[in-house]
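Here is a tokenized protein:
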Amino acid sequence: IKSPIDLFVFIQNDFEFVFGQTFQEKHINYMKARCVEMGQEIFKPIDVAGWQENHDWISTGTIPMRWEFIEYILNRHWAGNKEQFRTFIISLVGQDEKDPKVIVDKLKDYMFCKYDIKEEEQTDAINIFKGDIPDNYFQDGTWTLNYESVPTQVYNLMLFFISLPEFQLK
């Protein structure tokens, strides 16, 4: 199970997103406060060995906090620069990729270490990624990663993935 700090560090390090200027100065205090609420105080481990494996990070009370925490962090990155979501997905799949299934699979593999999600979750992920864009745009090549809605599509897909229980696993 990812610790609260693992959740934050994953988003920060693996996506290399930047926060908006107004949030930049406040994000450390925000992160510390949320981690304490979820049972992990930075620089104050429970003993000299640090936090033990299988620490009880997950409970009925912490799951909603964990989702809100990551959603808020992604939202702050979104507010800071929407285009960084397009830049990230292009770096992951290549400029010329047009197949929503390939894009969804590559982001899923990036976020879940090649974990196979359920077929219905895969279908939901593809539909969330497509959003309101007509299917024929994907079929006839009208849609590309330069399409104006791509940052929103990637953001929405990431929000879906963080809501899956498997995201909580290391």
